[in-house]
Design brief:
This protein starts with a helix and ends with a helix. With about 200 residues, it is mostly helical. It has helices at about 5-25, 25-45, 45-65, 65-85, 85-200. The relative contact order is 0.04.
Amino acid sequence: KYNLKTQNLALDYYSQSYKISKEIGNIDLILTSLERMISTYREFNQYDKALKLSQEYIKIAKAGNYHGFLKDHYALLSDIYAEQKSYKKALENRLLHENYSDSILNEEKAKALVKFQIEFESENKDREIVLLNKNQELQKIKLKQQQTTRNYLIASVILVFFLLLVIYSRFILKTKAHKMIEEKNKELEKLSIVARETANAVL
């Protein structure tokens, strides 16, 4: 247990902390300072002062939806009322503590569920993006293969065309050469005939 001097020093310190917290608007520190003052008054059985500050504490915590602070505070209030032998109020505050505990638990579960859903959707989107990228890559590869096949086909057709053109050209040249040889042979044959006839005439 604190002695009176220690109590006054503690209350003075928490009171200064409370004032500074209000000036800077830090609700967490305001509630923490009030809670410590309430606990100090409880230690010295000054329950009326503790309960008076408790009203301010609850008002501020509810206004800011500080459910975690309220949960702990109602447990403290339940202990204070129990020490005063006000068991009905002690039970009421214990139930409020449990209600806020359940509420916080449900909120945490809801947040966890939302987080899980967001992560699940994010992972699905990532998988979809990966799959889409793979499909795009496969389409590119397929298109490239088609282009390569088409180019080979075109090159083959052109090559066959030139080969046929060369063969045809050679065939034409051979045909012309053969015809020229035949014509030359005919001319030589005619000349040979003329030469024989001239020789016979001279004789």
